[in-house]
Design goal:
It is a single chain. By secondary structure, the protein is α/β, with parallel strands linked by helices. It has a single domain, classed as Alpha/Beta hydrolase fold, catalytic domain (Rossmann fold, 3-Layer(aba) Sandwich). The protein has eleven helices and seven strands. It has a five-stranded parallel beta sheet, sandwiched between helices. A two-stranded antiparallel sheet has the order 4-5. The longest helix is centred in the C-terminal third of the chain and has 15 residues.
Length: 225
């Protein structure tokens, strides 16, 4: 199960999913955008969307970026979570909000970006157009990605992740795509997880899907050795 960050759209995983399917794997991508639009409690709705998508099947939960912290609660609510892979993602922080885990200057910046009703602009607007074009040089791919990124409620980042005592019962691995996530990859190593690194960028799912899949397959093999 390929879980997208709530900050972007589910199509972020589409090319990776196609590559997995071509290799004979059963793949699903839960759409979390309706959960964000439905209102609070946001984290509970996001976790429920992941759990419902599993439909009691055995699953390997693969989370990109902001989906990482959701995997713990989702796995704790599933009887058949077989493994977790975090892809350039934050690790679970039960009992903490996202705002409590980021630098204070970033938290302040987000609060300043919110409009009077507490909504943030879509994630691509957090960055300059040049920065986004560097990650996604193909204008068609870039436009599709931007179009599918939702507006975001500031309060979602202030909600506290629920306790998730069961999630560590399954093995986990980490795939680092960019230098921005080197601390998370280091933490994964310290936990004894298999870790793979690509010299790529945070949105490599959209530009190098076959390379990402090859790395995920390598990690899956290590998890099941």
């Amino acid at each position: 199960m390929l879980v997208h960050s709530p900050l972007v759209g589910p199509d972020t995983w589409n090319l990776v999913a196609r590559s997995f399917v071509a290799r004979g794997h059963d793949v699903s991508i839960p759409d979390l955008t309706d959960s964000v639009a439905a209102g609070p409690p946001y984290l509970a709705r996001l976790v429920r969307a992941i759990v419902d998508s599993a439909a009691d099947r055995p699953v390997i939960l693969v989370g990109h970026s902001g989906a990482g912290p959701l995997l713990a609660s989702a796995g704790s609510n599933l009887d058949n979570a077989r493994a977790y892979i975090f892809v350039d993602a934050d690790l679970p922080t039960p009992g903490l909000s996202w705002m409590e885990t980021i630098p204070e200057e970033l938290a302040t910046h987000l609060r300043e970006m919110a409009d009077t009703e507490g909504w943030l602009p879509p994630w691509p607007e957090w960055w300059s157009s040049d920065e986004l074009a560097e990650l996604l040089p193909d204008p068609v791919v870039r436009a599709r990605f931007v179009r599918n990124c939702p507006r975001l409620p500031l309060s979602m980042f202030e909600e506290v992740h629920s306790a998730a005592p069961r999630w560590r019962h399954a093995p986990a691995a980490y795939l680092q795509l960019s230098a921005a996530y080197q601390n998370q990859a280091a933490e994964a190593r310290a936990l004894g997880w298999p870790v793979a690194e690509l010299e790529s960028h945070h949105l490599a799912l959209l530009t190098d899907p076959d390379v990402v899949v090859a790395s995920l397959m390598l990690l899956l093999g290590q998890l099941h050795e």
